[in-house]
Amino acid sequence: MTWRAEMAPQWRRLHRQGVDDIFKKHLLPTFGERTLSEITKADVLTFRAGLAQRKGRGGMPMSPSRINKIMCILRQHLNEAADRFGFTPAFRGIKPLKMRRPEVQPFSMEEVERIRTAIRADFRAYVTVRFFTGMRTGEINGLKWKYVDLEHGLILVRETFTDGEAEENAKTEQSIRDIPMLPMVREALEEQKKVRHQDSEYVFANANGAPIDAHNFANRVWYPLLRYLELEKRRPYQTRHTTATLMLASGENPEWIAKLMGHANTQMLFTVYSRFVPNLTREDGRAITGFINSRNPPPVPASHSELTQKQIETMDADALRQALKAALLAQKTPPKENSHGIA
Length: 343
Description:
Oligomer: single chain
Low-confidence stretches: 300-305, 338-343
Order of helices and strands: HHHHHHHEEEEEHHHHHHHH
Shape: globular
């Protein structure tokens, strides 16, 4: 376990626990008695196939995501040994299993307001901050008053609270960020400060002053509320996805949203959320058609009655104004008579 001891200082607590769990349950029982240089590509593939046959949570087959995580630890361990002792790494040419995109089921603005209105008063500020900051569960549950800057309108994400312990490191380097308060967030925090637990440093605390327990909130408050409102059952984490989709739909700058959410770049925004936001990415050709028409306007029909729906949809603002002007002129100009005196 030399590799684990060397790497542990740079890992977060939860990751260290996860690595130890993987070694104990999966890697040591299979490879514990093997010399690392003797482990072959076939051994690795056989091990992965065996994982796919095991049961995960709820008796379901182990997910590709979980299998990839286990294989990632094995890969890092074997590759480091290969570099140190000069043998061919067994993982050469083995790619991770394909995974489904994260399940994203954001709430609509109407649903957000129904939830904020109907939820217990002592959790109203909590869900408001969740919906309009995009904070992760561990980030908002671990939020302390010293990181709430009402003077400058900022929430400083510096700690997380998970599995009953606080940790002074966020999930990633990008996760350490300052979130500007929207008006409803500032109002919620100001109200929360009036009823804060006097002996607790946490913004959202239970009766004992400890941070809100994620499981208790989900099972005793969140899911019963969704049932009462007859809304589809969704995890509290969907509040974070809701933040992203609402901001994208409102036209906020994607780079600003990515920074607010704690993403390294905008790739996840466009990959995960684009299908929930009409006009975020146009796929009907109207944008380029409008651009071309603005440079080379199509002939304007003599009468507005000759305009088709398709022509109207592809016209830019200037072309539409020209068409309307021509239609109005046509109505004011009497028709010319032909040689027989018939209009």
